[in-house]
UniProtKB/TrEMBL annotation:
Residues 148-205 form the Peptidase S1 domain. Residues 1-29 form the signal peptide. Pfam families: Trypsin (PF00089). Belongs to the peptidase S1 family. Snake venom subfamily. Residues 202-215 have a biased composition (Basic residues). This is Inactive serine protease 35. The keyword Secreted applies. Keywords: Glycoprotein, Secreted, Serine protease homolog, Signal. The lineage of its organism: Eukaryota, Metazoa, Chordata, Craniata, Vertebrata. It comes from Salvator merianae. One of its GO terms (biological process) is proteolysis. Coiled coil: none annotated. Residues 216-230 have a biased composition (Basic and acidic residues).
């Protein structure tokens, strides 16, 4: 017990150091304040051309939190630079609504300058498995000074067993495969919910507004946490009422923070994620935006265009999510970028299933100001298995927010490309 307390203290001290201005001002012996700032870039425009009605999805796909057979680092090098007509199709998008109706919106891309070396990657470093071994570099955020404040309070839990990040008062960014397997929407996405962390106040006798919904919220919480546990244990596991009740009693005795579950009004995914377009799982397009039925009152994280890794302080990225092996806990980690392509970051942060869909962010200086700002610049797609020269190898991958993806996600949030000209 004493060792655990000592470990928690050390974790809190390290977190304080990591998020203090003085610690971040010097990384690798360089002055971050002078060298690193958010680049102000002109963003291509995505303009809606027409919207078509589609059939109702079956919602029969099985959730897979680890992808296999995807295009890896070597495969990325061989991909041709897409033509404008290809991008128009890849960036068109599906929207599925709460009542099951579905539409396809076709887009046009304006003001785009194609990069002739788009899919080049950096020098290949030695690989290693992403499973946690030896010293676990993750931090469970238990101190409310961190848990309830920015940037940690932007992390959310998705009812299908993934994580996400708040990017507006009504929108959540997550991985596409958390809701769709490339062919169909997964079973749990028909009644999709987003869980926002909340702390129960002690000794408060006041009834809060909406208290009548508490029983329903508790019921939904039980259902979603049970689904997440079944995903972790595999399709053949059996979870009866006794196991569920026991788990709830355990959580109650430990007084863990609870989730306030909010319905999802609509879900949007790029057409580039669909297998009938790409022929395979396209990790480059593994992102989705969920629109909440009710706005939240938490601080959210703004979008940022992913800079080159050379412009990242210390080459370090950060993200928080709800790893399945630490039930009910928000887990934070940071690590260096090992390799990159124009659409992906490759890294080896300690992470378990459940953290998939987390928002990866940076803290850089705003242009012409002394103020520092955190922005989400990638989506953690998770642990991937790829076929390399006939052998299966693994890595962790994050989908970078490129100018085109910034334009698309911004369009999903605001509904108007006129507000998305600079990023």
């Amino acid at each position: 017990m004493q060792a655990r307390r000592q470990s928690n203290k050390m974790g809190h001290v390290l977190l304080l150091l990591l998020f203090s201005a003085s610690a971040l001002n010097l990384i690798n012996g360089r002055d971050v304040e002078e060298d690193f700032s958010w680049p102000l870039r002109k963003v291509p425009q995505l303009v809606k051309e027409r919207t078509l009605s589609l059939g109702t999805p079956k919602f029969e796909a099985s959730a897979k939190l680890e992808l296999s057979g995807v295009c890896g680092i070597e495969c990325q090098r061989k991909l041709p630079v897409p033509h404008l007509s290809d991008l128009k199709e890849l960036l068109s998008y599906e929207t599925v609504f709460e009542n099951g109706t579905r539409t396809l919106t076709e887009v046009n891309v304006l003001g785009l300058e194609l990069d002739p070396v788009r899919n080049a990657t950096t020098h290949v470093l030695s690989r290693r498995k992403r499973q946690v071994y030896g010293t676990d570099s993750r931090f469970s955020i238990s101190d409310t000074r961190f848990l309830t404040n920015f940037p940690f309070n932007t992390a959310v839990k998705i009812s299908t067993g993934c994580s996400g990040i708040l990017i507006s008062p009504k929108h959540v960014l997550t991985a596409a495969h958390c809701v769709h397997d490339g062919k169909d929407y997964i079973k749990g996405s028909k009644k999709l919910r987003v869980g926002l962390l909340r702390l129960k106040s002690k000794g408060s006798g006041k009834k809060r507004r909406g208290a009548r919904r508490s029983k329903r919220e508790v019921s939904e919480l039980e259902e979603h946490q049970l689904d997440a546990k079944q995903l972790e244990q595999g399709p053949n596991s059996r979870s009866g009422r006794k196991r569920k009740t026991s788990a709830l009693n355990e959580r109650k005795s430990e007084r863990k923070p609870s989730f306030q579950w909010t319905r999802v009004k609509s879900t949007q995914i790029p057409k580039g994620w669909l297998k009938d377009v790409t022929g395979d799982v396209a990790v480059d397009y593994d992102y989705a935006v969920l629109e909440l039925k009710r706005p939240h009152k938490k601080k959210y994280m703004e979008l940022g265009i992913s800079p080159n890794s050379k412009m990242v302080p210390g080459n370090m990225i950060h993200f928080s999510g709800y790893d399945a092996d630490r039930s009910g806990q928000l887990v934070y980690r940071f690590c260096s970028i090992s390799e990159e392509s124009s659409d992906l970051f490759y890294q080896y942060c300690d992470a378990e299933s459940g953290s998939t869909g987390s928002g990866i962010y940076l803290r850089l200086k705003e242009p012409d100001r002394k103020k520092w700002k955190r922005k989400v610049i990638a989506i953690y797609s998770g642990h991937q298995w790829v076929d390399i020269n006939g052998e299966e190898q693994d890595y962790n991958v994050a989908v970078r927010i490129t100018p085109l993806k910034y334009a698309q996600i911004c369009l999903w949030i605001h509904g108007d490309s006129e507000t998305c000209k600079l990023g």
